[in-house]
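[job 4417] fold queue: 2 targets
>>> target A
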Amino acid sequence: MNDAADLATPLLKIRDLKIHFRQHGAEPFCAVKGIDLNLQRGESMAIVGESGSGKSVTALSLARLLPEPPAKITASEFFVSGHNVLTMGDRELRKMRGKEIAYVFQEPSTSLNPVLTIRTQLAEAIHLHRPDVTDVDAEIVLWLGKVGIVQPEKRLRAYPHELSGGMQQRVMIAMALCCQPSLLIADEPTTALDVTIQKQIIDLLAELRQTLGMSIILITHNFAIIRGIADKVAVMFRGKIVETGPTEEVLGNPQHPYTKALIDCVPKLGVKQERLKAIDYAVVEAAL
């Protein structure tokens, strides 16, 4: 496929995605109930919803990282860069994971191997997906520098416990990006970090997206962090996408009661409230 065709092909095209989990002695549980996802190259999307809405399960399914069984993934269309993910074998999936789709998860302290140095962990990713790289240390230093780690040469021999939470998350981002993926999926990447570091990480992702031209899917429960990084937003509730559209339109004029409730839950500077508004689930379910 030539470069022009690559650009014309949607990076992600999914129709009627359903994810079931088998339960011993019970009917399969449907965690994702027929959603559609579309993403062009260089585009960014936020998938927003509370815990249990199906966001992370959806994200993991994009590279078929859910163990099958107990999971069962079905869709009428499931294409990444024009390739049918549902028909890929294990070897093809290993090539796609990291190279085409890379992940950054919410707990860097548990994602990084505590007994291996930062160099060893990034080198493994580079050897696997970019065997043409001859000077691996220089490549690692380059990416550590790109994610804002000061004096990256000195961090090569460091172990994860020697770094702060924010630094660990930057290492995770460097590990994902050093494989030069087309799509970065950031699953609650700021949850375990304080507010100042949260902003730094979100600003970093937005900057890297612009400079590298990659696509991003940001998984979050927090509407407050998506402006400035996401072109569009999909709101999930109990396995369904209840509202989708350009970020500014959804934030400025939400149409679904669940979207309105989530936005109302975000504290606002200068507005004094004794309590945040609670979500009225009866109203939300009536609108489904």
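>>> target B
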Amino acid sequence: MKIIPLSEGSFTVDASKKLIPFNHSTDKLKDRPAGSMLVEVQPFAVITSKDIIVLDTGLGYSLPDGTLQIHHNLMQAGINPMDVTKVLMSHLHHDHAAGISKSDQVLNQRFLSFPNATYYVNKQELEIALSKLSKSYKIEDVGLLAESDQLSIIESSGIIDDYIYYEWTGAHSPWHQAFWIKEENEIVFYGGDVAPQLVQMKTKFVAKYDFDGKLASEIRKKWWKQGEEEKWTFLFYHDIKVPVFRF
């Protein structure tokens, strides 16, 4: 399998949950509000023998010419966004799901960002995202998907096309999912925001921003041990330095 990080940049985030761009050359973390965390926003493309897979869809930002940033990143890697066949969503918080759809200012319409892909989304996570019960979700990101025949609803745990495994984890959001892509002797693991950074896998870290921080910490410990035993390749959505870690 070929793995391509699709970084959309570095940001700081504090209790307000707003992502503020961070330039490593000119900005200093100490100048940001107390408690600010430095994170990357980094979807991934995974190319297998069967599919071109996108894991989460980023912030939905566009370049000055109107090109969606995640499309630009894919094209820079030699991938036509129209060739993406599967989009696997760990959860639907705005920083992971804003790139699900894009707005065309000329036509005054929204379109799915990957028109030839099937989007795999947890049923209850989608219901929460559409309910207006949490500011972490934005209906404009996911509303179009809810009405599309490109949506494939998943629940609990299961297998997609005999080689992509998913499991409900909760912990970060109530209906967060994790994914394992298994091909030949390789296992690529994506834990979304339950496993967002390498340092959190190696330490006993309990995050206040998680729905259940203690559960997230316990799950990371289990994954790290199993990943070491089975030689997983870990993908970290919010890691500044280590997007991909292989045992």
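[job 4417] complete. Note on B: The chain has six helices and 17 strands.
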